[in-house]
Amino acid sequence: MAESAPYCEKGLWHGRDAYVLGNEKIRLVVLTGGGHIAEFRFANSTGLPTVNPLWVPVWKMREPYQYREKLHAAHYGPPATGRVLAGICGHNLCLDHFGPPSEQEAAHGLPLHGEAGVLRWRKRRLALTRRGVSVTLEVELPIAGLHFERAINLRRGESVVYYRETVTNERKVDHFFDWQQHVTFGPPFLTHKDCRLALSGTRGLVYSGGYEGKELLKSGAEFRWPNAPRATGGKVDLTRPLSRRGRGILATVLLDRRRTLQYVAACNVRYGVLLGYTFRWEDFPWTAIWEENHARKYPPWNNKSEARGMEFGSSPLPVKPAEAIALGRLFGTPSCATVPARGRKSIEYAAFLGALPKGFKDLRDIQVHKGAIEIHSTSSKEPLVLEGSGLG
């Protein structure tokens, strides 16, 4: 396989079944077990840093559909969470629920963050030309009664990935649900010293339930992005991850509806790499912020994990169904997605990689125009411009 030409092939990633896509600039890995985007980095042939910004758990992963309680609960936890944690990594789709199930739902087989992340996805179509590559994966959600498709498109010469997702309601009643892109960054890209995070945020709210007694932020407090109130007093700058070992974060930020397109991004100034996403507010108005910094002592975490989730989607927080209903509209904004009876809904968004120029210090803003992405820093008057012919 020549890295200079667009390609898509089956392969293994950390021993797991995957599709590997790429062009002369980038390489993307999507797992068939749970549909996770496990790796998004620069191609070896570019000479650029090939660090993968996405989170890879410290524990040994396995295909989530192979989880068996008697064999694996001691390593990953009980079925409701263990099935997900056995295979989770990188960019995980939460559908049709974002958060833990109720006790009754768990008893009937519903896992944390819904079914999509634990089922086997299958390829529906593949298109490969000299100009690019597109692969569509699909999965049936029997408990939710939904069919899901994700089309992934790469174009020659670009470091942008275009996603189109479609949810089809197979039942004869309107369906209210969560549709969340659980994007998580991890080491070695994620560090307190060199990594900076950014999003087009406005108001925020810290989860009222804390973080299992180890919360870094003041539970239930409102704030303005990026400065959130610390549980012990003072402020925490949420653009800087991993500020206190042994603590965790769970909060939400409402994105700026005045903007044409939203963004979520992270950069590492030592590696000189940026990974970002852009999408419409009408589709994904919220970004949930989750951080684990050696706080959870039980398996599979074992006080060893560092991760920061920047989870954009239709819902503000990963909570149980009863909590989500009680929350209702937050800051005057809906907290769920809808699809009509026997209907379908499609959403498009894009992910992009950038190689930062020397002297780049932090992320000030990201502007998306037709055909280009502009990345602005306080350290330079001229933005970094990435070509994206599919952007509108």
Account of the protein in words:
- The protein is mainly beta.
- The protein has a single domain, classed as Beta-galactosidase, Chain A, domain 5.
- Helix content is 7%, strand content 42%.
- It contains four helices and 26 strands.
- The strands form six sheets. An eight-stranded antiparallel beta sheet has the order 6-7-8-9-23-19-18-12, with no helix packed on it. A seven-stranded antiparallel beta sheet has the order 5-11-21-20-17-13-14, with no helix packed on it. Strands 1-2-3-4 form a four-stranded antiparallel beta sheet, with no helix packed on it.
- Helix 1 (69-76) crosses helix 2 (79-87).
- It is globular and about 50 Å long.
- The chain starts with 6 loop residues before the first strand and ends in a 5-residue tail after the last strand.
- The model has no long low-confidence stretch (mean pLDDT 96).
Largest sheet: 8 strands, antiparallel
Morphology: globular
**Sheet with the most strands: spatial strand order:** 6-7-8-9-23-19-18-12
- Enumerate the spans where pLDDT stays under 50 for 5 or more consecutive residues: none
CATH topology: Beta-galactosidase, Chain A, domain 5
Q: What is the H/E string?
A: EEEEHHEHEEEEEEEEEEEEEEEEHEEEEE
For the residues shown, what is the average pLDDT?
96
| Amount of beta strand | 35-45%
How far apart, in Å, are the first and last alpha carbons?
32 Å
CATH class: Mainly Beta
The domain tally reads: 1
The helicity comes to under 10%
Supply the CATH architecture. Answer: Distorted Sandwich
How many helices? The count is 4
Count of DSSP strands:
26
Q: Structural class given helices, strands, pairing? A: mainly beta
What is Rg? Answer: 20 Å
